Amino acid sequence: MDIDLVFKIAATGIIVAVLNQLLIRSGREDQAMMTTLAGLIVVLSMLVRQISDLFVLIKALFEL
Amino acid sequence: MVIFKLAAAAFVAVVLYLILKKEQPAFAFLVSAGAAAGLLLAAARQVEPLVGWLQLLDATLPGQEAGCLLRVLGVVLVAQLAADVCREGGMLAAATAAELCGRVLALMQALPMLQQLFDAYAGYLQ
Question: Where does the sequence pass through the membrane (chain A) (predicted)?
């Protein structure tokens, strides 16, 4: 049961949320945006790998 | 029992989703998509022995219905996942389009079976 992916995504999300608030409060909105984008890209790459594993398994299982 | 682990995982994912929903909706959506993929992966691993048994059955049956049935099931499963992930993200039109694609492709997969049915039916009529 690979729940650790969900934990990784949530942890990244919380860190980005905190960093976002920190940067916005200190007046650096553009850097806050950059941090959010960077976090999104990291999480997306993890998620794409998980979903590709899922589709490979389904393709093998259902002879698609 | 696997079902308790899956239920606990789903529950934790919902809590994390709600935490992230206000601050970072993008990450909340990614958490829900990741949880959906993880749960479906676990379900697919659980259904593997059943599919093996169905393939065994397929060898004994005259036609190739079981293989066809399996493919339709796979197509519908993936299409439903895509449609629901789109709906989760708020894209209702894309969800409807994904569902329509799923139905059309499932029908395409089932065509050989329909063909067999019509051939058998035509045989009876003559």
Answer: 6-24, 36-62
Residues A1/B3, Cβ–Cβ less than 8 Å: no
The string of pLDDT tens digits covering residues A8-21 is 999 999 999 999 99
Please state the ipTM of this predicted complex.
0.88
Tens-digit pLDDT profile for residues B45-87 = 888 888 888 878 777 776 667 788 888 989 999 999 999 999 9
Domain ranges of chain A: 1-60
Contacts of B89 (CB under 8 A, 6+ apart): B29
Q: What is the DSSP letter of B24?
A: -
Rounded to the nearest angstrom, the gap between the alpha carbon of residue B46 and the centroid of all alpha carbons in its chain is 14
Instruction: Please report where in the chains the tokens 């079981």 appear, as a residue.
Output: B66
Which chain A residue has the Cα nearest residue B37? Answer: A51
Q: Specify the DSSP class assigned to residue B91.
A: -
Nearest by CB: B77 against A36, A53, A58? A58
Residue of A nearest to B32 (CA): A6
DSSP strand E in chain B: where? none
91-120 in chain B: CB under 8 A from chain A: none
Mutate to test the interface with B, among A1, A7, A45 (most CBs of B within 10 A): A1
